[in-house]
């Protein structure tokens, strides 16, 4: 066998960029999550925006008590994303837990690890998205049980929305929620949409609604906001990406008035 050549260390001077990519997006997602990363890779990632993910422990069933148990893991999860380096925005990808724990509490926990970084939660992004669409009376569709759906109804009512109708599937395992077929989501959205509502919100980051938001809008004739669609939209706008994407639904043509 031929001997290896002598390894030489070059003395050539190297140039270094400040960052490999100009924008950094952190994702804190559930250990069981099947959907957020594919959705964000499709809608957010680019040669300018990088995605960096940490998974935190989560055990089904999806109940308010189990959702609250994630709160202590938020700081540690955020700290594992590019330690010692800045992020432009960080998303906690669980809608029902954000409602149960509270947007402000989640922001505080994540900012312990990443001080000053904008923190996006799905329900707050949905509120901003519905406001951008000038929706005041809404229908809501969730995959959850009635017990887990009830705090969400209160959340949107407290944000000033008139909830015209609220429909849930009664599921308590987020892995099963991720397997709901897109055609089933379209049919369920048609059934859930109140005729006098301005828009439909489809909750849960596990549900693959973002990929069929445009098709649902065609079917119901009203704007659709889903959890991952809203967080992707807010993330893009925070990263100064203002490009409209009507093929992803009405929300992706809207600007956002700060975060």
Task: Describe, in short, the structure shown.
By secondary structure, the chain is α/β, with parallel strands linked by helices. It has helices at residues 36-43, 64-68, 73-79, 95-101, 103-113, 122-132, 146-158, 174-177, 182-192, 213-220, 227-238, and strands at 23-30, 49-56, 89-92, 119-120, 137-142, 162-168, 199-202, 224-226.
Question: Any overview of this molecule?
Answer:
This protein has 259 residues and is of the alpha/beta class. It has 2 domains: 99 residues, 3-Layer(aba) Sandwich (Rossmann fold); 108 residues, 3-Layer(aba) Sandwich (Rossmann fold). The strands form 2 sheets. Strands 2-1-3-4 form a 4-stranded parallel sheet, with helices on both faces. Helix 1 packs across helix 11, helix 6 crosses helix 11 and helix 9 packs parallel to helix 10. The longest helix has 13 residues. It is globular and about 75 Å long. It starts with 22 loop residues before the first strand and ends in a 21-residue tail after the last helix. The mean pLDDT is 97. Keywords: Isomerase. GO terms for molecular function: isomerase activity. This is Maleate isomerase.
């Amino acid at each position: 066998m031929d001997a290896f050549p002598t390894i030489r260390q070059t003395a050539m001077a190297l140039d270094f960029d400040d960052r490999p990519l100009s924008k950094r997006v952190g994702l804190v997602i559930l250990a069981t999550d099947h959907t957020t990363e594919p959705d964000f890779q499709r809608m957010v990632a680019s040669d300018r925006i990088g995605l960096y993910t940490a998974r935190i422990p989560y055990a089904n069933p999806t109940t308010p008590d189990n959702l609250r148990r994630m709160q202590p893991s938020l700081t540690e999860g955020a700290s594992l994303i590019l330690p010692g380096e800045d992020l432009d925005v960080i998303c906690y990808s669980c809608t029902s837990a954000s409602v149960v724990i509270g947007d402000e509490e989640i922001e505080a926990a994540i900012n312990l690890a990443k001080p000053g970084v904008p923190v996006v939660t799905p329900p707050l992004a949905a509120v901003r998205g519905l406001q951008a669409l000038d929706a005041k009376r809404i229908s809501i569709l969730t995959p959850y049980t009635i017990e887990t759906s009830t705090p969400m109804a209160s959340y949107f009512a407290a944000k000033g929305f008139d909830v015209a109708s609220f429909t849930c599937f009664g599921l308590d395992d987020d892995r099963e929620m991720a397997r709901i077929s897109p055609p089933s989501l379209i049919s369920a959205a048609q059934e859930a949409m109140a005729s006098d509502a301005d828009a439909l919100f489809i909750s849960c980051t596990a549900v693959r609604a973002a990929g069929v938001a445009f098709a649902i809008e065609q079917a119901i004739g009203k704007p659709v906001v889903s959890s991952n669609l809203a967080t992707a939209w807010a993330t893009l706008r925070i990263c100064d990406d203002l490009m409209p994407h009507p093929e992803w639904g009405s929300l992706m043509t809207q600007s956002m008035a700060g975060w």
